[in-house]
Amino acid sequence: MMVSRDEQARDIGLLFLRVSGGLFLLWVHGLPKLLDFTAQLQLIEDPFHLGAHLTLVLAIFAEVLCPILIVAGVLARLACLPILFVLLVALLVVHPQWSVAEGQFGWLLLILFTTVFIAGPGRLAVSVRLPGVLRYA
What we know:
It is found in: Cell membrane. This protein has one domain (5-135). 69% of the residues lie in helices and 0% in strands. It has 5 helices and no strands. The chain has helices spanning 5-35, 37-43, 52-72, 76-94, 104-119. Helix 1 (5-35) packs across helix 5 (104-119), helix 3 (52-72) packs across helix 4 and helix 4 runs antiparallel to helix 5 (104-119). It is elongated and about 55 Å long.
């Protein structure tokens, strides 16, 4: 099947968005939580009173495993949901006093991962080679 230049450019753009956004979230937020778990237990907010341990484990899931799936393009849309949830909780529940300028990093990540959620991973994704539901999630 012949792919047009516009389709190629769109797929390269989605690949760049997935990889850069996923690695950025992983590096800036996920790995510090994972690698310094004990210290992070003292710092993490617990807005739903689940306990610091469970809250941190859920944050690590959203900020380590989900970005890796998004970078690979496996279950990318589904993997965006926990990230979007964590971002919305951080911006609207944990830090409601932040101005747009103060929360701009979070808002930009929200825009980025919402775009991946809407557009999907594109054709340059591992999921393109996978059968069934994994391909579209």
